[in-house]
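User: Here's a structure from my thesis project, written as structure tokens. My advisor, Dr. K., wants to see whether a designed sequence matches the one we expressed. Can you design one independently, without my sequence as a hint?
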């Protein structure tokens, strides 16, 4: 039998408070996406990410359909946490964030968010909902260019 560790330490099931934090696998810096270290991520983060995935827009669902299952040769995640933000889509391996925005976006908050993600080492591509719905092929081309390293700035 395991001896419980002091409250708030150790792994879940060893005295840790599972409602506060749970183990979450995150990639080690500079390694491929399949090498992981364990880090503690708030349960609230998981809950919020799930809610954001459930409440995605038509444009986000359409783009996810085109990005999932390594369709562009790279794996993307939906509503990936990049504290304190959530990226609509993130390719961890290439450090690329894809944001899909409606009419409420594009202001100073998004500029701050983009700057924070860039400071954390991510490239940010931003597309309007209408662009994703009407020109999905063009959006996917720009994402492929970013994956190939040909595009270094905002989209």
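Assistant: Designed independently from the structure alone:
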């Amino acid at each position: 039998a395991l001896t419980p560790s002091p409250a708030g330490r150790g792994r879940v099931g060893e005295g840790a408070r599972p409602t506060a934090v749970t183990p979450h696998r995150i990639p080690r810096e500079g390694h491929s996406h399949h090498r992981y270290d364990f880090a503690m991520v708030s349960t609230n983060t998981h809950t919020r990410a799930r809610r954001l995935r459930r409440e995605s827009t038509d444009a986000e669902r359409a783009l996810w359909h085109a990005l999932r299952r390594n369709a562009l040769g790279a794996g993307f995640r939906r509503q990936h946490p990049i504290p304190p933000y959530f990226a609509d889509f993130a390719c961890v391996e290439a450090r690329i964030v894809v944001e899909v925005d409606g009419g409420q976006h594009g202001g100073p908050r998004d500029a701050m968010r983009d700057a924070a993600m860039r400071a954390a080492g991510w490239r940010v591509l931003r597309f309007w909902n209408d662009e994703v719905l009407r020109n999905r092929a063009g959006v996917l081309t720009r994402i492929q260019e970013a994956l190939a390293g040909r595009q270094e700035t905002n989209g």
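When you compare it with your expressed construct, this may help: Residues 1-40 have pLDDT under 50 and may be disordered.
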